[in-house]
Design a protein that fits this description.
The complex is a heterotrimer of chains A (about 170), B (about 500) and C (about 725). Chain A has 6 helices and no strands. Chain A has about 170 residues and is an all-alpha fold. Chain B has about 500 residues and is mainly alpha-helical. Helix content of chain B is about 75%, strand content about 0%. Chain B has 21 helices and 2 strands. Chain C is an alpha+beta fold. Chain C has 5 domains: about 140 residues, no CATH class; about 120 residues, no CATH class; about 260 residues, no CATH class; about 50 residues, no CATH class; about 80 residues, Immunoglobulins (Immunoglobulin-like, Sandwich). Classes of the chains: A mainly alpha (about 170), B mainly alpha (about 500), C alpha+beta (about 725). At the A-B interface, helix 4 and helix 6 of A face helix 2, helix 5, helix 6 and helix 9 of B.
């Protein structure tokens, strides 16, 4: 087996197992760790696809930012392990059936699809992406700022205390 | 790449709404009280409406913006108008509602405008990326608006469900975009997809991508089986926001679907061919209206009942989409007329729902509405007209919307069954709409009626009723507008 | 062309709007003055137009008042136009005339009502909607009126909403009517698809020309005209209370009596008949549809007459009687005798409105009770009411001279003489005619029973009521007298030609341009029908008198007595009565009970109405089970839906409809007729079952020449290259 294939399967395994661990683990810390594994796996896959910028961003934003924040929150919140989970409904059986159903269909599609095999010319993509974001894709890039603004306000709206409540 | 001044002018309604949203945020932090931000937001809507009218008069031809990311054409301008009016009505109703329920914050006005801007982006989108961003802008603002009623536990619950399921649906939207992008050889603009669809259709991945996109959009219009969030979110949201969700957001999503299906996936092989989306959408339309109506029958909560009613209406709307896929002449204008009539009716209905509730007496159960006709005859009459419009009884706009859509569908022999099912469904729906009418007219009041007076609500209610009736009596101007004509005799 | 035509519906509509908005601020006098004036003015305007343009109405297509283009999109253009021709002019006069009378009557009847303004507003609204229905020049305009009258009917039935029964009766009426409206809408869509317009005159001209767009086969080998006519008739069945949608009408009697007279007897319920007559040319293109119309009409006429025999509520008897009479009208229009149907509609409006108003007057006197077993001997106390009732009663029974006699005969004779059904269905006409004669006997009997029980003999009411018996005020008696006069004289409009050559069949000649050809009835047949029906009417009255004259007489009482007395009665003196009892009364009463109990109460009320509710109820419960508020479950449903979508597109869909045509030894197999799309599929045909595919390719059809006769196994393999899936269809083929 060629090395890159081995590496691919390793990363894929990390992604899949990590993703499965997030909902299945009863301990929220392990869930966060599962998320870490999934995100690292995906970043690795990006590297294999020669998507260097994407891989680095994935690491920086999701692992360096989002995940660290999550883990901090988990660690700093006292007695998070004792917290009563109101919804114990994991539903392993129905989940498995559902997974089998959708998974089979997706595999079915993936197997029968005529994949076009292209040898990738590996080159660094950051320049292209930078040019693209400030050139051809400027408009959507700018509109995205509205999304972010709305999200920011949302965080404030949801987090702040009701002023007139008492 | 440069952007021409003409393009900025063409996009001015969208830019105005977005800009005024940001300005309203700023103003809210600086000015005293909430009124300045509210006035600014309302003025912005009016100005944007004027800009839409200006665009409409200005040019009849469609104008691509930013190399085909967006388009400004008559359909988009028509829906822009509907969306901005919906936003304006929401602002007018939301202000007194939030004051009464004591959760008034200036950000809400900005969020209403952001949601509208997102919706406008959706109806202008001719590119999967702009569609995606528009949908996300609209949805995020909507999640937050639903969550804004902090005192109401149902609000947080509904918002969380909406957010979780919405994120799931957005995932499919992105996944679908990626699959389509990959299988068409790097195409995301509708025109490009349409050009390569015939060849790409041989690839199951493309088909799957198309259906994932469809799923993501169907989620937004609350089509069965992707509708489960709707009753909870509608119930939990502040009532004016529910009105916006049922009117503006649904209108935008249907507009986006019309574009997507009407151009990118219009290829007959894709639409009608092997398990084409026309057939699939026909089935979903049937399931949606039937499920919505049957579930509405037993609801005691008016908002929940109207949520199911809105699901049922999504089913009727999809009949128009199916007719569009069948290449029926006039399906698109018919759909637009229906959307306008439906939006006006829904806004009016939710205004009444918002109006009847006091801070400690929400009056959300049907039996709470007993005897309204006795003390508030004008509002009861208005509500009756609006409900009859929802039920599709002439001479209301709701009837004409349905009439046009069904007539368009009847042009295609394959859709006769769907029309029969839809008419039967609207027959069933009469039952639950009449329950409210019966409560208002034929029951004695249980508690005294003390709705809070509000000029804004009165204006919205009056205007929506007039529009609904006018659409039923003289639908011609709107029909011509929907067909893209310039109405000169105004 | 006269633009005052638009004033006719507009006047009552404006008055209704005014009264709804400002009615509370006015005194009772001004309220009813406004309401009555509006309808009265509408009557005067219609009369003015009608008589001023008399020759034009008669000779041409009538007058049009184009208010404006109502809606136009693509190829659909609907004008908001009103048209008065011979038919709609007549209807218009009738509606406004009877409407005015009933408005005046209501001022007396509802003198003590709280919601005075609301009542008159609704009544005005109804008149406006009905006039829109009558005058509408296109089907959509007609439909607006059609729905409008339904809405008013709903509002007025539930007018006294204090009692739950009234509100639910209103709802029942509205929902039942919507079932019919579904048919109306579909019929309208079909016509639009076929002809491309919804203007009634254009439709009628197209139908008269026998245009192929209407005669082309649509479904099951029947032409477009048949289906359109059938669906439109479905609307008529709902509105005009025919089997199986008549159930709402008896319940509708919960409304105030003037409403029953105006809406549920004289005008709205006849809208179906009017619509069929209006589109008569369309129906003539489809004899089977006509036969269905006439058949349903005759069945309803008989059935409702039998039920009416056993009712003890004054207004219920009249309600079933209305249903039965509407059946007569449908036989009229269903046998191509449109003028006959309209003639009966016209006379019926007079005598049935009269009867209802008499009922109102009687109930007014009886403190609101309509129980005829508690009445009797009211003739002395209510002289005017009694005289009017007598006239109307004799009219509906079909006693010669009175209007009902002539109109009923016109229908019966037309049924015997009709040729519209063509040679294959020629037996339909006489069968229906005979059925109607039986129904006429029933009519004479139950109406006479009603008359005897209410007006003759001793009063059976309690002392308190008896002390307060009084004739109604002039506002109520006046309209009664006018209607009675109408019931007496309206027959002159349609005297049989056999009676008067010069003045015979005025209405038929009047409507000839508007309605087209009518069945020719020979003079001999006219005489025979007249004689028979006169005899039948007298027999019915006589029989009823024998049973109920002066109160419940011995034979009738014996029947109503309990079972054990039965043998004693057989041994009694009145042997003839016993035979009557056995042969006539009991079966009839029994049948009436059976029909009423089994069909009306169980089959329709329980199963159709109740069963529907139960079904809806259960479905609602089940759907609520799914919506429990659990996000996981929502997501699961989302995912299942998505999986189903992917499955639907992934599953090998292939034409399942296989058409095999055999000519001699050559067999042609065709798959293209199937519903599913067939492009991109690959087909393999194995004709002789030897496992080898004889034809392979993208063509969905193939033919094969068999060397010798025998049984062959045909196998078709359909492959979808996209999914690499295939399925096989097998058939056996017999080669002779």
């Amino acid at each position: 087996m060629p090395t890159n294939l081995v590496v691919f399967y390793l990363f894929a395994l990390a992604a899949v197992v990590g993703a499965a661990g997030v909902p299945m683990s009863k301990n929220i810390f392990w869930s966060a760790m599962g998320l870490l594994s999934a995100l690292v796996g995906v970043a690795g896959l990006y590297v294999l696809l020669s998507a260097d910028f994407l891989a680095v961003t994935q690491l920086l934003v999701y692992i360096g930012g989002v995940l660290v924040l999550i883990i901090f929150a988990v660690m700093l919140t006292s007695q998070i392990k004792e917290i009563e989970v109101s919804n114990q409904n994991v539903g392993l059986v129905s989940g498995a059936i559902l997974f089998a159903l959708t998974g089979t269909l997706l595999c079915f599609v993936a197997i029968w699809a005529p994949w076009k095999v292209v040898l990738l010319q590996s080159h660094e993509t950051t320049t292209d992406i930078g040019n693209g974001l400030l050139g051809a894709w400027l408009l959507p890039f700018e509109v995205t700022s509205v999304v972010l603004l709305a999200t920011l306000i949302g965080a404030i709206v949801v987090a702040r205390k009701e002023i007139k409540e008492d | 790449m440069t952007i021409a001044a003409a393009q900025i002018v063409a996009l001015s309604p969208l830019l105005m709404i977005t800009g005024v949203g940001c300005l309203a945020l700023l103003l809210d932090t600086m000015a005293k009280g909430r009124a300045p931000a509210l006035w600014l937001a309302q003025l912005g809507c009016v100005a944007a409406l004027l800009a839409v009218a200006n665009q409409w008069m200005g040019s009849g031809s469609s104008q691509p913006i930013w190399s085909g990311m967006l388009i400004v054409d008559r359909m988009a301008l028509f829906l822009d108008g509907v969306l901005i009016i919906a936003a304006l009505a929401t602002l007018l109703v939301a202000a007194p509602f939030m004051r009464e329920h004591e959760f008034e914050h200036g950000e809400h006005y900005a969020l209403v405008l952001f949601a509208t801007a997102g919706g406008m982006t959706v109806v202008h989108a001719t590119h999967l990326l702009s569609l995606l961003i528009g949908i996300e802008t609209m949805s995020l603002a909507a999640y937050l608006l639903v969550a804004s009623w902090r005192r109401q536990p149902a609000g947080a619950e509904g918002a969380l469900k909406y957010l979780l399921l919405g994120a799931f649906a957005a995932g499919f939207l992105v996944y679908g975009t990626a699959l389509v992008y990959g299988t068409t050889g790097g195409e995301m603009s509708y025109a490009g997809i349409a050009a390569r669809a015939a060849r790409a259709a041989d690839n199951p991945l493309f088909i799957m991508g198309a259906y994932f996109l469809l799923t993501g959009m169907l989620f937004k219009i609350a089509a069965v089986p992707f509708h489960m969030w709707a009753p909870d979110a509608y119930e939990g949201a502040p009532t004016p926001v529910t009105g916006l969700m049922a009117s503006g957001i649904k209108v935008a999503a249907v507009g986006g679907l019309v574009r997507l299906l009407g151009s990118a996936f219009a290829n007959p092989g894709l639409a009608l061919g092997h398990a084409g989306w026309v057939r699939v959408l026909g089935g979903i339309a049937f399931a949606t209206m039937t499920w919505g109506n049957l579930a509405a029958l037993r609801q005691e909560n008016v908002k929940r009942m109207l949520a199911y009613s809105s699901i049922a209406h999504a089913g009727y709307l999809m009949i128009g989409l199916v007719a569009l896929g069948q290449k029926v002449d006039g399906a698109q204008p018919a759909l637009l007329v229906y959307l306008a009539a439906y939006a006006a009716t829904t806004l009016g209905v939710f205004t009444v729902v918002a109006w009847v509730g006091r801070r400690d007496d929400e009056r959300l159960l049907i039996r709470d509405w007993a005897g309204m006709a006795r003390t508030r005859p004008a509002v009861a009459l208005a509500m009756t007209v609006l409900l009859l419009s929802l039920a599709g009884v002439p001479p209301t706009g709701g009837f004409f919307g349905k009439f046009y859509v069904f007539r368009a569908a009847m042009q295609s022999p394959d859709l006769a069954w769907l029309v029969v099912a839809a008419v039967l469904n609207s027959l069933v729906s009469v039952y639950y709409y009449l329950r409210i009418v019966v409560a208002m007219y034929f029951r004695d009041p249980v508690r005294p009626w003390q709705p809070f007076p509000s000029v804004g609500m009165a204006i919205v209610l009056f205007v929506t009723v007039v529009v609904v009736l006018a659409l039923g009596v003289v639908p011609r101007p709107v029909v011509e507008l929907a067909a893209g004509g310039l109405v000169t005799h105004w | 062309m006269p633009s005052e035509l638009r004033m006719i519906p507009l006047l009552p509509l404006l008055s209704a709007a005014y009264l709804i908005l400002f009615g509370r601020r006015h005194s009772r006098e001004s309220v009813h003055r406004i309401a009555c004036l509006a309808v009265g003015a509408a009557f005067l305007v219609s009369a003015d137009v009608f008589f001023f343009w008399f020759p034009i109405l008669y000779q041409s297509n009538g007058l049009t008042d184009l208010v404006g283009t109502w809606l136009a999109s693509g190829d659909l253009q609907v004008d908001l136009a009103l048209r008065m021709d011979a038919l709609s002019g007549l209807m218009c006069l009738m509606v406004t005339f009877v409407g005015t009378l009933i408005h005046i009557y209501s001022t007396g009847y509802l003198a003590h009502e709280q919601d005075y303004a609301r009542f008159f507003a609704y009544l005005n609204l109804f008149c406006g909607a009905m006039l829109l229905l009558v005058l509408g020049d296109s089907l959509p305009v007609m439909f607006v009126g059609w729905e409008g009258v339904g809405l008013c009917s709903y509002l007025l039935i539930g007018f006294w909403y204090g009692e739950a029964a009234n509100a639910s009766a209103g709802k029942k009426a509205f929902i039942t009517n919507r079932v019919g409206d579904l048919g109306f809408l579909i019929g309208m869509f079909l016509l639009f698809r076929a002809v491309g317009t919804l203007d009634i005159p254009v439709l009628v001209d197209t139908a008269r020309a026998g245009s192929p767009s209407l005669t082309a086969a649509l479904w099951w080998g029947q032409p477009v005209a048949f289906w359109a006519a059938l669906f439109l008739f479905m609307g008529a069945v709902g509105k005009s209370a025919q089997i199986p949608l008549y159930v709402w009408l008896p319940d509708a009697m919960a409304g105030p009596t003037p409403v029953s007279a105006l809406i549920h007897a004289a005008t709205m319920v006849t809208a179906g008949v009017y619509m069929v007559a209006r589109l008569g040319a369309l129906y003539l293109l489809a004899p089977v549809a006509l036969a269905i119309v006439a058949g349903v009409g005759a069945l309803t006429a008989l059935f409702a007459a039998v039920i009416a025999l056993g009712q003890n509520d004054f207004k219920k008897v009249l309600a079933y009687s209305t249903i039965s009479q509407l059946g007569f009208m449908f036989v009229g229009v269903g046998t191509g005798n449109f003028a006959g149907g309209i003639f009966h509609l016209f006379t019926h409006a007079f005598f049935k409105a009269g009867l209802f108003l008499c009922a109102g007057s009687v109930m007014h006197a009886m403190a609101g009770s309509g129980d005829i077993t508690r009445m009797g001997g009211l003739a002395q106390k209510l002289p005017f009411t009694t005289w009017v009732f007598r006239v109307c009663w004799l009219a509906i029974c079909g006693v010669p001279i009175f209007s009902g006699f002539f109109s009923k005969d016109a229908i019966v004779a037309g049924a015997f003489a009709t040729e519209v059904f063509g040679p294959r269905l020629h037996w339909v006409g006489p069968t229906l005619g005979a059925g109607l004669l039986v129904a006429a006997l029933g009519t004479a009997f139950y109406m006479s029973r009603l008359y005897c029980l209410v007006f003759t003999g001793e009063c059976r009411a309690d002392l308190d009521t008896r002390a307060h018996l009084h004739e109604s005020p002039f506002a109520m008696v006046g309209p009664l007298l006018v209607l009675g006069l109408g019931a007496l004289l309206a027959g002159v409009m349609g005297l049989p030609p056999a009676l008067s050559r010069s003045h015979g069949d005025l209405i038929g000649r009047w409507l000839a341009t508007a309605l087209g050809r009518q069945p020719e009835v020979s003079r001999a047949l006219q005489w025979r029908v007249m004689a028979t029906s006169a005899l039948i009417a007298l027999a019915g009255i006589g029989l009823a008198w024998r049973f109920f004259g002066g109160g419940v007489r011995e034979p009738a009482r014996r029947f109503t007595a309990a079972w054990p007395h039965f043998t004693a009665a057989v041994r009694g003196k009145f042997f003839i009565d016993e035979i009557y009892d056995w042969l006539v009364v009991r079966p009839l009463r029994g049948l009436s009970r059976v029909f009423f109990l089994v069909v009306d109460r169980i089959l329709i009320d329980k199963l159709l109405v109740g069963g529907w509710t139960v079904l809806v109820d259960t479905a609602g419960r089940l759907l609520r089970l799914v919506q429990v508020g659990d996000v996981q479950r929502y997501l699961a449903i989302f995912a299942i839906g998505l999986a189903a979508l992917v499955y639907v597109m992934a599953r090998p869909v292939a034409p399942s409809e296989v058409k095999v045509r055999i000519e001699g030894r050559s067999a042609t197999v065709d798959l293209t007729e199937g519903k599913a799309a067939v492009d991109k599929l690959e087909y393999g045909f194995d004709f002789d079952g030897d496992g080898r595919e004889d034809r392979v390719g993208a063509a969905a059809n193939a033919n094969w020449l068999y060397p010798r006769p025998g049984h062959y196994q045909l196998r078709i393999r359909i492959k979808d290259p996209r999914w690499n899936t295939s399925r096989t269809i097998a058939r056996t083929i017999d080669i002779p």
